Amino acid sequence: MPCVYLGLGSNLAEPVQQLEEALAALAALPATTLAAVSSFYASDPLGPPDQPRYVNAVAALDTELPPLALLDALQTIENDQGRVRERRWGPRTLDLDILLYGDRLIDDPRLRVPHYHMHARAFVLYPLAEIAPADLTLPDGRALAELLAACPLAGLERLGAV
Ligand code: ROI
């Protein structure tokens, strides 16, 4: 079963609760096991600074769902939790991003994997490193350890394990 890494993020409507609810929904997906969850992190917003800090985490799933079926399921969870997104790069109740899908490179109009910004985002790389193998290499050849070494913490703050 492919191992899929997901990024979770929220900065509206009780972000920690949003993430906890999302994790429960992920654990209930068909043909899917929630294999690992990172600590939760507080992070400064990337994008317009006039929005609350985010809570971010990374989860690992073992799933038989193909990538676009998984994407549909994630969008359903986002919508079920009353996803609000007021503007591009603006605040949101819940973001679920497919970061990695096994070792696959996916270039679909709906889905790019690896996630196109993950290599430079502290709020993705540090939680990912908590739960991924130390020698993880992205399918495009980039080593997680190298990406981390080049990525300052930039205000990322660990909130503790779930
Ligand atoms: N900034 C942070 N810190 N965390 C996020 O999850 C996040 N998500 C986004 C944008 C608006 C780019 N900024 C973010 O989509």
Can you offer a commentary on this structure?
This protein is an alpha+beta fold. It has a single domain (3-160), classed as 2-Layer Sandwich (Alpha-Beta Plaits). Helix content is 27%, strand content 28%. The chain has four helices and eight strands, in the order βαβββαβββααβ. It has helices at 15-27, 67-80, 122-131, 144-149; strands at 3-10, 32-37, 40-43, 54-63, 95-101, 106-108, 111-113, 157-160. The strands form two sheets. Strands 1, 2, 3, 4, 5 and 8 form a six-stranded antiparallel beta sheet that branches. A two-stranded antiparallel ribbon has the order 6-7.
Bound molecules: 7,8-dihydro-7,7-dimethyl-6-hydroxypterin
Mean pLDDT: 94
**Helix content estimate:** 25-40%
Number of domains: 1
Query: Ends: how far apart?
Result: 25 Å
Cα radius of gyration in angstroms? 15 Å
**Which stretches are poorly predicted, pLDDT < 50 over at least 5 residues?**
none
Biggest pleated sheet = 6 strands, antiparallel
CATH architecture: 2-Layer Sandwich
Order of helices and strands: EHEEEHEEEHHE
Query: What global shape is seen?
Result: globular
Per DSSP, what share of the residues sits in E-state strands of 2 or more residues? 25-35%
> Per CATH, what is the topology?
Alpha-Beta Plaits
Number of helices: 4
Task: Count the beta strands.
Answer: 8
Structural class: alpha+beta
CATH superfamily: 7,8-Dihydro-6-hydroxymethylpterin-pyrophosphokinase HPPK
What is the CATH class name? Alpha Beta
